[in-house]
Design brief:
Blueprint (H helix, E strand, L loop, with lengths): L5 E7 L6 H8 L6 E6 L5 H7 L3 E5 L5 H14 L4 E4 L11 H7 L5 E5 L8 H18 L11 E4 L3 H4 L8 H11 L4 E5 L13 H17 L1
Parallel strand pairs: 1-2, 1-4, 2-3, 5-7
Antiparallel strand pairs: 4-6, 5-6
Helix pairs in contact: 5-8
Length: 220
């Protein structure tokens, strides 16, 4: 399956050991895979380029939210009508891309959710439960996994879900905007591989995200 109608965007920071494999697998589903190298000090850009991705590089590390925004702007300039976000650390299985594309025919936004089993580190299970509870309370949105970076949306709703967060708060801000604009969304189960050298949200990040969720509810 190949399509010019959608693009896969992969924000990456020092992911030379994983990004090439992710790009090659994603290219089985679309011709447009964009890697935004967010100021890496390793060979992330070169590896992604050699694997067939379109590469954009930030000269300094700006954060995940900034990298995703850079990727979206480029994708839309290339004519993409649908966007899929994937992480660069090897957790996401590209074969799930077809699920997202199919569901985007019926929904504005599709969010992946990871199985909350014992393969997921305890701190992430607890964090996901807290985020999901806060999301239901604040925004009346029921999701099993609010922090999964594997998600997709249609171009027509980009302005409504567009975020200001530069960091890992981006996932929660998108969900807050879904609730604010009453967008049609759904969740889809995905396969996840947890690496020993997992890089992602910390407990401090989680507390900051929760604080931002309350702030967005109060001021928007």
């Amino acid at each position: 399956m190949s399509s010019l109608r959608f693009a896969v965007i992969i924000p990456a920071y020092n992911e030379e050991s994983h990004v090439g494999d992710i790009v090659k697998k994603a290219l089985e589903y679309t011709r447009t895979v964009i890697v935004v190298d967010d100021g890496s000090s390793d060979k992330t850009s070169r590896t992604a380029d050699n694997s067939g991705a379109i590469v954009v590089r930030h000269s300094v590390n700006l954060g995940k939210g900034a990298a995703l925004k850079t990727g979206c702007e480029l994708a839309f300039s290339l004519g993409a009508e649908k966007i899929i976000f994937m992480d660069a650390d090897g957790q996401h299985n590209a074969k799930n891309i077809s699920k997202f594309i199919e569901l985007l025919e019926k929904y504005d936004v599709v969010i992946g959710y990871r199985s909350l089993n014992f393969k997921m580190p305890l701190v992430f299970r607890l964090g996901n439960w807290m985020m999901a509870t806060a999301t239901r309370f604040l925004y009346n949105i029921d999701l099993k996994d609010t922090q999964c970076g594997f998600r997709a949306f249609n171009k027509r709703v980009y302005k409504k879900i567009s975020w200001e967060s530069l960091d890992y708060s981006v996932e929660s801000e998108i969900i807050a905007n879904i609730g604010k604009h009453n967008l049609k969304y759904t969740a889809v189960p995905i396969e996840t591989i947890y690496k020993d050298n997992y890089k992602g949200t910390t407990i401090f990040d989680g507390m900051m995200i929760l604080a931002n969720m309350v702030k967005w509810k109060l001021i928007r």
